[in-house]
Specification:
By secondary structure, the chain is α+β, with helices and mostly antiparallel strands. The protein has one domain. 45% of the residues lie in helices and 16% in strands. The protein is built from 2 helices and 4 strands. A 4-stranded antiparallel sheet has the order 1-2-3-4, with helices on one face. The relative contact order is 0.13.
């Protein structure tokens, strides 16, 4: 007698039952529901950390600028790069609220912005730090 392909000769079924496949899909869905929010939270924390680190790298150049000029007015990321630190990536930073005695620097990494207000040099991710 000829055997039918896919069926063993003892008459049993091969493959997975629909219920088994549904159970596996449910388990994968639960794992994805746990993993995706965790990953997104991790990514946001990493971006915020990178933005804060970028501002901490900028802070010494800002202090040297003030030491040389006696004011924060007129300070730009390009001027800081040219005079104090060639590794400054000017596209990351913006400087606002510049006056003779204070400044606000902002760095954005993948949509997360960190703020450095001065002259205290406090770095934060809340926009209330800068006027």
């Amino acid at each position: 007698m000829l055997e039918t392909p896919g069926k063993p000769s003892n008459g049993g079924e091969t493959g997975f039952a629909l219920v088994e496949l549904v159970v596996v899909m449910i388990i994968l869905g639960i794992l994805a529901a746990i993993a995706v929010p965790s990953y997104l939270s991790f990514r946001d924390r990493e971006n915020a950390s990178a933005a804060r680190a970028d501002l901490r790298k900028l802070a010494p150049s800002i202090k040297r600028y003030f030491s040389d000029n006696g004011t924060y007015a007129g300070m730009t990321p390009t001027a800081l790069q040219r005079a104090y630190d060639q590794s400054i990536k000017t596209r990351l930073y913006s400087l606002t609220s510049l006056s003779a005695t204070s400044y606000c620097a902002k760095a954005t990494v993948n949509g997360v912005t960190a703020y450095l207000s001065g002259p205290s040099g406090h770095v934060t991710t809340t926009d209330t730090a800068c006027p």
